[in-house]
Specification:
Elements lengths: L18 H5 L8 H5 L3 H8 L1 H23 L7
Helix pairs in contact: 3-4
């Protein structure tokens, strides 16, 4: 969405992730205990490792690092 924002006329966009696939039964939902403890990402990584490994294991920590730098006032991101 971010990469295409200048080509769209919509003032608001919502990323819904796997919501439709979960609702129609295409994807299995994580067990309740995993959802309640913030581990649904781990369940999804286990069910779709080829598609999600880079997002969760590479890009996630980079994102967390950038957020930390901004919160500490060491760097500002746009």
């Amino acid at each position: 969405m971010y990469e295409h924002r200048d080509m769209l006329l919509s003032p608001v966009m919502f990323g819904i992730g796997a919501a439709f696939d979960l609702n129609i039964g295409k994807l299995k939902q994580a067990p309740k205990w995993m959802r309640e403890n913030g581990l649904e990402w781990l369940f999804r990584l286990g069910t779709e490792p080829r598609r999600l490994w880079r997002r969760y294991l590479v890009l996630g920590p980079i994102f967390a690092w950038h957020v930390s730098l901004e919160l500490l006032g060491l760097r500002m991101f746009e």
